[in-house]
Write a structure and sequence with these properties.
single chain
């Protein structure tokens, strides 16, 4: 049996650039997908904190209503009923203050920049430079 000589396949520069373009396109699509996933995660967290602020605002509104009830009780009866309404208003107001301050502190600490995407884009740029060189 005769063995056929191994033929070394050489690709032309056009093929190499075509492959590079395809790989670059795939890489860009993957980076966009990563950025989208990262921003969705961060937006979800910011949304939760915004919801907590809204709930805190609602509780604050309830405190305002209780305070109004206390004022009405004071004017109507001038008896200890107003004191209980005032205590409720102070407690509800304290809860509202705590919720809003807590949510605002979390929002201030939130870092919304897509750090992972920036890092991988830098790595991709280095990879692309090596491929072109």
């Amino acid at each position: 049996m005769m063995q056929q000589p191994m033929i070394k396949e050489e690709r032309g520069i056009g093929d190499l650039f075509s492959e590079l373009a395809n790989e670059t396109g795939t890489l860009i699509r993957q980076e966009v997908s990563l950025a989208q996933a990262e921003m969705t995660k961060k937006a979800t967290q910011a949304g939760k904190n915004a919801a907590s602020i809204a709930i805190g605002g609602f509780v604050g509104y309830a405190a305002f209503l209780a305070l109004l009830a206390a004022i009405i009780a004071v004017l109507s009866y001038a008896i200890p009923v107003w004191l209980s309404a005032l205590i409720v208003a102070v407690v509800v107001g304290g809860v509202a203050y705590y919720m809003i301050e807590n949510a605002l502190a979390k929002l201030k600490k939130a870092d919304l920049a897509p750090h992972e995407t920036v890092m991988t884009l830098k790595e991709d740029a280095q990879w692309l430079k090596k491929q072109v060189s």
